[in-house]
Protein 1
Amino acid sequence: MSEEQKRLLEQQLWNIANTLRGKMNADEFRDYILGFIFYKYLSEKMVRYADSILKQDRVKYNDIDENTELGKQYIEAIKEEALLKLGYFLKPSELFSQIAKRGSSIAVDSNEIDVNGNGANNNFILEDLGKILVSIEQSTMGTASEDDFDNLFEDLDLTSTKLGRTESAKNELIAKVLFHLDKIDFQLENAQADVLGDAYEYLIGQFASGAGKKAGEFYTPQQVSMVLAKLVTTGKTKLRSVYDPTCGSGSLLLRVAKEVKEVGNFYGQEMNRTTYNLARMNMILHDVHYRKFNIKQEDTLEHPQHLNHKFEAIVANPPFSAQWSASPLFMSDDRFSQYGRLAPSSKADFAFVQHMIHHLADNGTMAIVLPHGVLFRGGAEQHIRKYLIEDRNYLDAVIGLPSNIFYGTSIPTCILVFKKCRENPDDVLFIDASQHFDKVKTQNILLPEHIEKIISTYRNRTEANKYSKIASLKTIADNDYNLNIPRYVDTFEVADSIDINKLASELVELDRQMAETKNTIAGFCKELSISTPF
């Protein structure tokens, strides 16, 4: 698919999403449009797989009559195979294309007759659509994929009055959305292009840009995701596992996969139920097999779900300076006990660092985005910094990012990179990329050249004037484990020298001109017989 075709597809999807936009706010109509795209994807995947099984019988899945004995036999056989291979099942009558076709006349001209001449009752698809979405979830019960599909469509509320005041109005709106979606070819046969996955990511990004502060709950800007992904995959072509303890929509996990040839397994945890559903959909839409991802819904710090796992790559963009319980009970938790101090209850930033360090494999790399305060705040946070650097020697790099780069907050942020087995154990690399960005409307963004400079500097561990510096562990200790980047990277700009005599002469000349102007104005006022303004 060319870039022009890709942009056209993205625009088509965004236009369809805007069909709902006038009815509800961004995060609400996001759930509907992404849910319907996901339903269409599952249907097309089901048809392709069923047709491959039926090929030897020269039968098409869409042509099976579910009411005949032969049709029932076909469906039972396909269901058994589909649950093993795909993790879910849809009957021919439950496919997206069938439901969209039934509602097509409403979508086109609101006539009460569909393309086959059937009456208005057949056009009412809302109730059947709700049953189908429940049926998809129920088809997985008792199977290995049950957890991955459990309540996956719960945020797609077809009874909401936001879709319309009457059942007819709701039905008409949904019929229009399905009709327009049905016309789009997601090119699932093109396994290399990942057309749908890219389009889905585009939509998530669009919703994030319009969601303000809420966007930070589910989306990391793509260029920041790219930096994190490249950092943790340095020197790797394959990863056994990748983990994100605050995975949001799962986009960051999927970004890591684009940097290597293969990822064995994806792990994530997300506290928000709606965002958790979004992450599971995102995995499946990117053709990650249900057996290869393990996404859990819970509070990561309070109720971790992957305690017995170690991961080769860990990435995270946790909520900045979030509150957590900091319960004294955590002092006996293996994630925190060795430090002797807990992160303060008002700022959980280092609690996330400690959690991730616990899960990091000996040959792994982790990269986490945090607010600048973690670099220099005192108290427990200084104690934890000292332990990580002096006792463990895990900190590998500190990277300063531009301000106003995240949705919903303009604060400057940094990336901390940790390794348990460092190739350069005697020093830490500091990079100040805070002044290297482009401005798009009200948002700052990293361009490809900015990303490349960060990554090449990190990988080659190079020093550059006013950009990067390698600091010895002794230097950091002498600074009392304060990691504030200007202490290490000198960005001071010498101001141009000022000629005082020249400046004095200019001020004298300015006074003369002002006096001359006053005299001129006074003359005009005298001629007009009015008082002067002085």
Note: The longest strand covers residues 360-371.
Protein 2
Amino acid sequence: MEEKKKRIEELVKQLNQASEQYYGGKDEGMSNYEWDALFDELAALEQETGYILPESPTQTTSTAQEEGKGEKEAHEYPALSLAKTKKIEDLQEWAGDKKVWVSWKLDGLTLVLTYDDGSLTRILTRGNGTVGTNITYMASALKGVPQKISYKGHLVVRGEATISYQDFEAINDTLEDEDEKYANPRNLAAGTLGLDKTNLDKVAQRNVTLNAFTLVYLEEEILSWGERMNWLDKQGFITVERQEAWANTLPQVIEAWTKRVEGGKMDLPVDGLVLSYDDTEYAASGTVTGHHATRGGLAFKWQDVSAITWLDHVEWSCAASAITPVAVFQPVQLEGTTVSRASLCNISELERLGIGEDGKTLLEVIKANKIIPKCIAVKEAQGTFTIPESCPVCQAPTRISVSASGTKVLRCTNPECPAKHLKRFTRFVSKEGLEINGLSIQTLLAFINKGFIHRYQDIFHLSQYADQIREMEGFGQKSCDNLLAAIEKSRKTTPVKFIYSLCIPLIGVDAGKKLVARLGTQGLLDRMRSGEGFEDVDGIGPEKSGAIVQWCSQEENKRDFEALLQELEVEQLQPQEKAQGSCQGLTFVITGDVHHYKNRAQLKEYIESQGGTVTGSVSKKTSYLINNDVTSQSGKNKKAQELGIPILSEDDFVAQFG
């Protein structure tokens, strides 16, 4: 008995430590597979012995999740966690004779939104379920969070803030320091929601999206969970996907939803399913056991399945910040798909697992959350792995760097290695750039590693590699043909898209519009060739002008510029006459939320249509600062007050300028 108690204490300590890492840091102490196995062992021992520690993860919710920089506040309604099971029989017993709804158990961070009189009044993180952190200041940077709704009563909504796998991989690939990388999309979402008010642009860029999963409180009486979710749809929320079911149909429904995950078509991170009673009165009448409401919902987690296979070889793939080892192994069937590759992250992970020689290492592999292939153990190994001495992309010498936390990472020593310029290629093909559909950051990286792409212009000659592309994982005849068609379509472009795609420092879409409007297409191209400055263009100051001139002076950039003009048909636009209107000759700065206009971009567009200019910072040249919180002590308000610049509310602006 004493040995079992000691084991319980060890498990509680181990699981809580792993949870703190998972919820609050960037490192992942153990996989979900390992955590679930230890949790199941703990739960079985607790049931057998009756020995349950207050801090046991079977009794508590994690309080270690990354929190925002706002104030701690109590939840109006406790955000309880759900009891979990891996058995469909438990789901059927729980459902009984009641209609239930099946929805995704999204792997993100729970947020609680409050509305009054049609306006968003508060966003709280879940925290410990009783007290959360107020991050209302992030409202404008989060997707799926309506700031205005038609309903005028008191409303409380709970949802999961997530980052898609595609956005997660794109962001991680741009982080230079290995210590800065995130272990999974949930970690990235946690880190993002921990940012302060000065980083809202970064929050917005990461596409954190809230999926509402329950309507907690509504003054009107809607007693059906399904109807409550439909009501949220009509109010403008993004709600979780759902399907109604009964106890006898649950096996078929669960199987169908599971196959969707196994098919690899889920871009949102999920770690199970959730059952909810349709009868909300019945659900609310249950008891609370520990931190779980017995009828509040039941989570279903899939049984993890592993496979044993022989490592064929370690492939080294160059990314923006590191050369990453990838295990290529004998194909195995996992969760309904054939798996033959899994990232090994870095040299430290190779050492931790004990990877041996190619062909002489026996691996245990899973699909984490049924999506991401992962090597969790080495069952047998001879010898040790070989670290390449040259970069697989540019053949420059490699070096091993050690991060602050002691992580060993292989890097290329060539600063001009194409893989290090992945962000530039990503911008080049982005929607704001040449808009080439099908060239994701992962595809670009694969093509760079294959040697297909070195410079921007190489993208327009990918057709010469068509046969090889069709043979690549994730490609086929149709996807290859679609990609090549998208590349051909992108050859006809606008001058603003062309300028944006060049990745000139400080020059974005807005600056591009100003340059084209003032100079026209040919005038802009001629000016870039001549080396003349651009300070005569409204909104292009010395810093931006200098950035363009500096970029155009570099020989490699000159060659890319001329080569691209040979590939592209850039729309010929004439210089525009300056707009005349109520804002003629005035310079505005916009800060804070807006309500007359859809967003700040729309207000900016109106000002420019009336002959005005909008800049990002307050200076002596600023005519007016627009801020609906006229009396706030924000940095921009203080600066405007110091310089004697009038601060207008949006109502003031509309009254004065239309």
Note: Confidence is low (pLDDT under 50) at residues 62-67.
